[in-house]
Specification:
CATH topology of the largest domain: Alpha-Beta Plaits
Structural class: alpha+beta
Number of strands: 6
CATH superfamily of the largest domain: Reverse transcriptase/Diguanylate cyclase domain
Strand content: 5-15%
Order of helices and strands: HHHEHHEEHEHEE
Largest sheet: 6 strands, mixed
Helix content: 55-70%
Length: 299
């Protein structure tokens, strides 16, 4: 059945067609605008990664050039020393070797540090690849999350730089799917992913952890900072979307691995669900505690 078979007056039929076209165009424009915003954000992230890699390369290139000059001078001095008396030459050679040893050790340390930094930036680049991207929401998938956590633990082990993460779960998501359909549920997931992605820093990693769960990895962020972010995000979701979320926050500590860190955050999330949902709990390594009661009023 089409509009003409309803025997509507031509002006009314044309108005209906125009309205449908307007709504479709508006929806298409919204999707296009969202894609543009996401592309701009990904471009900023890519530019940041490129800038970091360029700085690492410049630093290593400069250090290698300086060290090459030092080694060349050392070789020239050794060549001259061989023509002197043996005892005096040996003492002078020891002194020269001591002088060249320290910059050599510094360069070796710098190379090791650069390796870890490049590894971290490589993990950031991996989040742009399709195999590490969730096709529905456009954020990282579980594989991308695993790579990001591996890089963060490597940085923590070598430099002692901490990081935190939060697990966010949509409240009563099963009811949303059952009552409004899975297509609507998919739109909810996309809207939440978009909002989270808009709130994080370029250095943070957003990943879809499970069906309706998301993880935000926050480098160089302590438990308090991650708690403030998670509570503000919870309030923002409640204010802007037709849903609520619960959160569980944890920070990496000595002896942690990926499983133990995620387990603490998941344990805190479970407490948030038990406490009535639409709230955030954190695990401080010893016990769980509600974030809202720990934050200052302005947070």
């Amino acid at each position: 059945m089409d509009l003409w078979s309803l025997q509507l007056p031509v002006p009314v039929a044309l108005a209906v067609v125009a309205t449908i076209g307007y709504l479709f165009g508006r929806r298409y424009k919204q999707v296009a605008d969202d894609a543009i915003v996401r592309s701009r954000r990904e471009l900023r992230r890519a530019q940041l990664v490129g800038s970091e890699l360029e700085k690492i390369a410049w630093s290593i290139r400069k250090s290698l050039a300086n060290h090459h000059s030092s080694v060349s001078r050392f070789r020239e001095r050794v060549g001259r020393l061989t023509e002197q008396q043996e005892e005096a030459a040996c003492k002078e050679l020891c002194r020269e070797a001591e002088e060249i040893l320290q910059p050599t050790l510094r360069l070796a340390t710098q190379m090791a540090n650069a390796y870890d930094e490049i590894r971290q930036q490589s993990a950031n680049l991996m989040t742009f690849t399709e195999v590490r991207t969730d096709p529905l929401t456009g954020v990282s998938n579980r594989r991308g999350l695993d790579d990001a956590l591996s890089a963060q633990f490597a940085m923590m082990s070598r430099y002692g730089t901490g990081f935190s993460l939060t697990i966010l779960d949509i409240d009563h998501f099963k009811q949303i799917n059952d009552q409004q359909g899975h297509l609507h549920g998919d739109r909810i997931l996309q809207e939440l992913a978009r909002l989270i992605d808009d709130c994080v820093r370029e250095t943070d990693i957003v990943a879809r952890y499970g069906g309706e769960e998301f993880v935000v990895v926050m480098p160089q962020t302590d438990l308090d900072g991650a708690s403030v972010f998670s509570e503000r995000l919870r309030a923002k979701v409640e204010g802007e979307l037709a849903l609520t979320i619960s959160g569980g926050v944890a920070t990496a500590i000595d002896g942690d691995d990926q499983d133990s860190l995620l387990a603490r955050a998941d344990n805190a999330l479970y407490e948030a669900k038990t406490a009535g949902r639409n709230c955030v709990f954190r695990h401080n390594g010893d016990h769980r505690e509600p974030v809202a009661e720990l934050l200052p009023v302005e947070a």
